[in-house]
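Protein modeling request. Please complete all fields; requests missing the sequence field cannot be processed.
Requester role: graduate student
Desired output: 3D structure, token encoding
Chains: 1
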Amino acid sequence: MCELLGMSANVPTDICFSFTGLMQRGGRTGPHRDGWGIAFYEGRGCRVFHDPRPSADSEIAALIHRYPIKSGIVVSHIRKATHGKVCLENTHPFVRELWGRMWTFAHNGKLANARRLPLGAFRPVGDTDSERAFCFMLGRIQARFPRPPAKPEPLWRLIAELCAELRAMGTFNLLLSDSRHLYAHCTTHLCWLTRRAPFGRAQLIDAEMLVDFERETTPNDIVTVIATRPLTADEPWHVMQPGELQIFIDGLPQTGPAAEAHT
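Delivered output (263 residues):
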């Protein structure tokens, strides 16, 4: 299976620390050697990097490690191929435009009979079950909402319905963003933590790297990191339950009746 990494923050933040841990799992401390990718949101824009090489050996990954790109939302993925050949067009995250927004999608799992999923205006470029599921979701969203809904709650409910429908086909661990929200859906393995004042230190599991976040942040910063498995050993990661969908805005999980419709 693949591994996911996401971030939602209330201020532009770099993900170099967490990404350093993830990239080791792409061929060094983990078996995910079949490509990787990462997307950084900057306002309406989305800066995306893909490489079909293992992230542990990728010069592009080394660039991301050295270059602190600051973003409010990040979606990243390292791949262990279960469906589709190892090539550039099959590397996640996948990106499409809807409503003048760039949507990104990364999936960990395997879906049975994905080729039977009906498609609307969106078509896959590669041959993975993941990209077809993304196109299916966007097609259904566009059909229900030709224009962006005035309030986010109806969209949240639809995304929850689509996640439940796809979960019935197999394993569907998901990161999805529309440039405003970060959605995280769990079938088997997904967890998250929120860093906010008072900040402390953290040590990566997969690399000899320690960060004192008190020195790197301001008292108002809020940063949530989502990962398939915890990236640090000394922080309180929240393990998501099967069927759970979390929605993050500016680093905070959303609560209340509208958001509870997704659980």
